[in-house]
Design a protein that fits this description.
With about 150 residues, the protein is mostly helical. It has 9 helices and no strands.
Length: about 150
Amino acid sequence: MAKAVVSSIATPEVLLETDKNLKELSADDILDLERAEVEEKLGRKLKWKERQVLKLTKRRLKKLDKKTSKQNLEEAKTNGLAIAGFVCSIVGLLLSLWFLLAILGIIFSAIALKKIKKTGQGGRGLAVAGLVIGIVSFLIGASIWAFTFWFFF
């Protein structure tokens, strides 16, 4: 019950609308001041809802403070090599005899993982999936080729 109430009120706007005195607090005040200091500045105790919203607002502001808008934009983009590696690995799995596509999937996925770690872009799950599926595809394709050559020659 409490989580539902907190999630429905957990916006800085609600914090500011609960009391006219709270409108005087800036984002820096919210981040820098502890609960007791906010209460002292307002001259009264905070209500339970206000305390919960203050906690959640601090968390959100800390996250926003750590990231710039450019980083947020880069994180929203999915790495193209991760997509390419995933697609190559899936096609390599479906066409097991063409295990060369699986090799491309492994290469693209490995490069994508390195770039994602460096830049913080999205698509890490695709890159990991492409890497795993590419390895499995390669093993299946290579074993089919090896069995074929061993059996017929």
